[in-house]
Amino acid sequence: MDRKAQRRRILWILTAVAFVVVILFLDRNNYIDRAETKREIQQLQYQRDYYLSRIREDSIELERLKDDRYLEQYAREHFLMRRDSDVVYVLEDR
Questions:
Q1: Under 8 Å CB-to-CB from 80, ≥6 apart: which residues?
Q2: Looking at residue 26, what is its pLDDT?
Q3: Torsion over CA: 21, 25, 28, 34 (sign)
Q4: Where are the domains of the chain?
């Protein structure tokens, strides 16, 4: 009887090991795929947060550009626009 019990025990252990191997590596929803998916989700959430913050910043900038004085200042700073009476000096960093 001792031999039968030992064989059953070995059979249960092998079955459990096979089950763990199938779940971790061979199953459609295996551990490796889940880890990759989790990493991809985290990366996409980071990108989403980045773009949401950019949208907020751009919305604020758009509201500020509706003011004519700020629009003129913005055009002078970013596009080197000037009035006819202005002299513009462009300094470049080296």
A1: 88, 90
A2: 80
A3: positive
A4: 2-58
